[in-house]
Design goal:
InterPro entries: Kinase-like_dom_sf
Helix content: 25-40%
Order of helices and strands: HEEEEEHEEHHEEHHHH
Structural class: alpha+beta
Distance between the termini: 62 Å
Number of strands: 9
Keywords: Kinase, Serine/threonine-protein kinase, Transferase
Largest sheet: 5 strands, antiparallel
Organism: Planococcus shixiaomingii
CATH architecture of the largest domain: Orthogonal Bundle
GO molecular function: protein serine/threonine kinase activity
Number of domains: 2
CATH class of the largest domain: Mainly Alpha
Protein name: Serine/threonine protein kinase
């Protein structure tokens, strides 16, 4: 019997994805009335099936297809967890996932949705769980954490097989602890968040410490908030 997701995936034949340099999001070519794009990253784009809405397809850029099996393997190690999606299957071009609703932390900042401390603690707990499974919880940032009924769910586990700490979560948590109280109920413009994102990827070139970088970001944010 044909699986429901296999029928739904036929719409992907009209879609292709390409990566871009300088850590910029992928470019999507084509469209389908049966698919809704729900996320764009630097390696892949994610589409919800409108004919089988409980499924989502993570379609990798042609240049990143080697990451598919690696991410599927990570999901198999993680097993069932309230902090992560379920991966049902993979093909040469995409992963078949559970559809997860809710705004990302990035969306929360855009819309002025409060990110509760419980969600931050959930990420801390999830990271401990990942380590217990022998994996390395890295590449955790605003765009791959969802807020679901006040709790956190983490997307994109493809980097968990790589060594080293990129400190992205540590920096994000520190910013939350020290500065979030000043902006928690204020929608932030997209241009400002994107500017901060680009600055972050280069902060080590221009600032002797993360503290000085955050000071500059905070000043910029306060300047924007002034009437």
């Amino acid at each position: 019997m044909t699986k429901e997701w296999e029928t739904a995936s036929l719409a992907l034949s009209a879609i292709s994805v390409s990566s871009n340099p300088n850590n910029e999001p992928v470019t999507i070519y084509g469209s389908s009335p049966d698919l809704k794009c729900i996320g764009v990253g630097t390696d892949a784009a994610v589409f919800q099936s409108l004919t089988a809405p409980s499924y989502a397809f993570k379609v990798y850029a042609e240049e990143k297809l080697d990451k598919i099996k690696a991410e599927e393997h990570v999901y198999s190690i993680l097993g069932s967890s309230p902090f992560f999606s379920t991966c049902y299957a993979s093909t040469e071009k995409y992963l078949v996932m559970t559809y997860e609703d809710g705004p990302t932390f990035f969306d929360c900042l855009l819309q002025g949705i409060t990110i509760p401390e419980q969600a931050i603690q959930d990420v801390e707990t999830a990271r401990s769980y990942v380590r217990e499974k022998g994996l390395n919880p890295r590449d955790i940032h605003l765009k791959n954490i969802l807020l679901q009924n006040g709790r956190a769910k983490i997307l994109d586990v493809s980097e968990y097989i790589h060594p080293g700490n990129d400190f992205r979560w540590e920096h994000l948590k520190r910013a939350y602890d020290e500065y979030y109280q000043y902006i928690s109920d204020t929608p932030m413009p997209y241009w400002l968040l994107e500017t901060i994102r680009k600055w972050y990827h280069q902060w080590a070139k221009y600032y002797p410490s993360f503290e000085e970088f955050m000071g500059t970001v905070f000043k910029q944010t306060n300047y924007w908030k002034k009437p």
